[in-house]
Amino acid sequence: MKTAASGIVSAILALFLSFPAIRAYAEPGPFDEYAVKAAFLYNFAKFVEWPPSSFKDSHAQLIIYIIGIDPFGDKLDVLADKTVSGRKLLIRRVAAYDDLGKCHILFISRSEKDQLGNILKAIKNRNVLTVSELNNFCSSGGIINLFLEGDRVRFEINQRAAERAGLKISSHLLNLAKVYREEK
């Protein structure tokens, strides 16, 4: 017999698999890591709650910035017409650190490894969900780290970093993640 918790986890997994980029990964064929990671960015937006003050108004866009060398190519283009909680997604590639606080999700490319401390400092006390694929990202203060486990994309969440950013991560998302525990 299924418990309520296992039913919820199954429902969340079904939601993740319903996105086209994830479905393409699940079907036989070549593994497209960045199509899967693009789908994860979209789904993260659906399971994170930003404070109302992080938006100009109830119709403001949810903004995703990519900083550094963009590993996604055109894989993020499928998100251009998507909405999350009634907010249209806007994808931008940026280079300037002083504009980083204007986004809601910040994907930090591997090319920015040496600048990670400066980037995280630039968005300190801002309601920005940081996502990367850098080793030790969560232990450096980042919120969500994407990593490969075999031929599957997995993710780790630093819940304390999310709380410091004023973000609420759904327990359903936390149940699917490896949770990073900060030392006190």
Structure explained in plain terms:
- It is a single chain.
- With 184 residues, the chain is α/β, with parallel strands linked by helices.
- The chain has one domain (4-180): Rossmann fold.
- It contains six helices and ten strands; from the N terminus they run αααβββββαβββαβαβ.
- It has helices at residues 4-18, 20-26, 33-46, 116-122, 159-164, 171-176, and strands at residues 48-49, 62-67, 83-84, 87-94, 105-108, 129-132, 144-149, 152-158, 168-169, 178-180.
- The protein has an eight-stranded mixed β-sheet, with helices on both faces. A two-stranded antiparallel ribbon has the order 1-9.
- It starts with a helix and ends with a strand.
- The model is unreliable at 5-28 (pLDDT under 50).
Structural category: alpha/beta
Average predicted confidence as pLDDT:
86
Number of helical segments?
A: 6
Q: How many beta-strand elements?
A: 10
**Which stretches are low in confidence, meaning pLDDT under 50 for 5 or more residues running?**
5-28
- How much helicity do the residues have? 25-40%
C-alpha termini separation: 39 Å
Run of helices and strands: HHHEEEEEHEEEHEHE
The neighbouring-strand order within the major sheet is 3-4-2-5-6-7-8-10
Summed up, the domain count is 1
The proportion of residues in beta strands is 15-25%
CATH architectural category: 3-Layer(aba) Sandwich
CATH C-level: Alpha Beta
